[in-house]
Fold:
Amino acid sequence: MLSVNANLEMTAEKSSEFDFDALANKYDQWYETAEGTMYDRLEKRAIARYLSGKREGRKLLEIGCGTGHWSQFFSEHSFEVTGVDVSERMIDMAQNKKIPNASFRVGDGHSLPFKDGAFDVTAAITTLEFVRDAEVVVREMVRCTRKPGGQLLIGVLNVLARLNRNRKQRPESPYAKGLFWPSQLKQLLKPYGQTYIVPAAFVPRQKWLLSLSPLIDTVGRLVHVPYGAFIAAEVRL
Structure:
C-alpha cells in the first residue's frame, strides 16, 4: 500500500493522474515500517486466496507495477510476469531488482501494447485509484486476458477505511480523488465476468495492537465488515 506525503504534479498525458517518478526512491520505504509490513502481509494474503490451480508457466500482466514489489510476489507464486508502468524511474528500479521470471517496460494502461488474450492473468494492485480513466484501463486489461478461463486480479484502497479517509482529506495527496467504495469496484468489474470482492487489511490504529492484526483481519472478513483498508477482487472471464 502506497504511503506518501509529497506534492505530486498532475500529468494529463500519462496513464496516471500524478507523476510518480518523484516517488520512486521513497516508494519501498513504506514496506520497511512495522505498519507497512503488516498491511503488506494482509493485502498479499487477500490476493493469494484468488491464486489457485497450476501456475507454473502461466503469463501474468501487471498494470502499474511500480518498483516491482508485487511483481516479486507474483514471481514467487510461479507466474511469468510482465510489468508495465508509466514511470520510467520506477521501471528502472524494478529491473534493477532482477526478479526471476519477470520483465518490465514503460507502458500506459489506457492503451496496452499487447495482443488480445496474450495473458492468463492480468493484475492491477493499488493502480486503478490513480489512473485517468479506470473504466478504460479495466477494458484494456480484459482485452489482454485470454477468454474463457482468464482472470483479473484487482486490489484498491477502500474509501470506507479511516486510514484512507484521513489521506483523502489532504488536498495535495494522490489519494484525494480516486479511492473506491466496495460497491463501486464491484459495479466497475461485474460486466466482465463472475466477480468476487472482499475488504481486507484490518489493522488497528493502536500500534500496541499491531501484532493482533492477522486475527482482527480474519474476523473482519468472516463477518463481512466493509471497512478494511484494502479491497481485493477477482474477475473470472
About this structure: The chain has a mean pLDDT of 85. The chain has one domain: 20-236. Residues 70 and 164 are 20 Å apart (CA to CA).
